[in-house]
Amino acid sequence: MNDEALLEFVDTNVMVYAHDKSAGGKHQVAKELLRRLWDSGRGCLSVQVLQEFYVTVTKKTRRPLDPEEARQVIHDLALWRTFAPGAVDVLGAIDLARKHDVSFWDAMILWSAGQLGCDIVWSEDLNPEQTYDGVRVANPFRPATGSE
Fold it and tell me: To the nearest 10°, the Cα dihedral for 127, 120, 108, 81?
């Protein structure tokens, strides 16, 4: 597989850690991952991730971002490939959730990544190294196993 062809989807938790300076080591790891994806042009996300990110970083972190600062981050990330689901995508995520026994919201992340043609979803919420309908989950906060 040509590594240059990989598209990489970023889950909400990774986005939050990248902007939450109180997240310790996870902040640095996530920030570096986003920088790499920005520089390579391979970063992908969804409207769901942007919505969850805004709510989380402005209301639920120890050091919330100012809403205008969070808005600017989302404005910048709008340059990435972004999936905006419709009703048919909700049905697809329901089917994926039932097939793989994952939550609907996790299935929506996986479905969105698949619809964008991503090879990887960066997340700490899903089972690392598991593949869901061709999309592999990787946890950026776990040591590499040699297969990444």
Answer: 160
